[in-house]
Structure prediction request, 356 residues.
Amino acid sequence: MKKYNFNAGPSMLPREVIENTAKQILDFNGSGLSLAEISHRAKDFQPVVDEAVALIKELLNVPEGYSVIFLGGGASLEFCMIPMNFLEKKAAYLNTGVWAKKAMKEAKAFGEVVEVASSADTTYNYIPKGWTCPEDVDYLHVTSNNTIYGTELHEDLDVPVRMIADMSSDIFSRPVDVAKYDCIYAGAQKNLSMAGVTIVIVKNDALGKVTRYLPTMLNYQTHIDGGSMFNTPPVVPIYCALENLRWIKKNGGVEEMAKRAKQRADVLYAEIDRNKLFKATIADPADRSYMNICFIMNDEYKELEKEFMEFATSKGMVGIKGHRSVGGFRASCYNAQTMEGVEALVACMKEFESMH
Ligand SMILES: *Cc1c(COP(=O)(O)O)cnc(C)c1O
Prediction:
């Protein structure tokens, strides 16, 4: 039976990305050695990093004066590296979910943190609006897509200060106005590559402004100066990212990714709204994520949750269980998700409805 992968992360990648990466793991560039067996400083590997950096800059239209680096440690390490490198006195955070909250917690160790708004009161089921950002902060931190709850900022905010964004789960799914940000970071395993690498896009002249001592490995400048080779980078995930970046470019770039994401999300949300058994956890269509589409059983059908889970699994759906803090279901539809996958899930929801 065909499987449809809706995993939230690590998640689906285009088949050809997996296949091309697998080939290089067996025999890198016809060298007879595995990609996993060569030095990251080998002359064949440098072009991999160079092309990946160039493609990231091209796809996101990164302006002059920014660096792109590959790090380990996941997006979670960035939660502390960001304030360490950018927070001198005060920073603002928009609290839209658990990841935002974790980022805020780390920042408090380095300076004053202002929570500009929070949707914690209703399990983060909306994006707070109508708040103002203080102008005397070093940056405003936002989480562009809230993977667990299924809310998303579909546009770059207009605020009077520089922004820093955790784009782990929607990077490369839409065009971004990078010039509004001092730093954008993303763990790769949602929408870019396999787990193990984090990409960081950083404005060069935003660095060097804090007075504290920065441990060498936790200083962004170290990795910019070292071209992501200060220490051994995660070679295989970087290679896999390169293959995915090539795939995104070949398929029309981030504009096309945005179009496809919206098409898929529209189809799935339409069925959730129509089907009497289900309801979306995010009521306001403007806040609904195109990447993580969350829904629960309608109140009168609560007891069918387990049965739908089993039914969907029997039809080949993988990874649709909602995060434990929200319950219900979550269909993650990153760039690699197909309309066929979404239609299969919709068909499954319709069939289940007809059985009840
Ligand atoms: C998954 C996720 C993280 C955590 O990423 P790790 O790579 O596991 O540290 C952080 N932020 C967001 C938005 C995520 O989706």
Observations:
- The chain has a mean pLDDT of 97.
- Residues 76 and 149 are 18 Å apart (CA to CA).
- Residues 9, 74-76, 99, 143, 147, 166, 168-169, 187, 190 surround pyridoxal-5'-phosphate (CB under 6 Å).
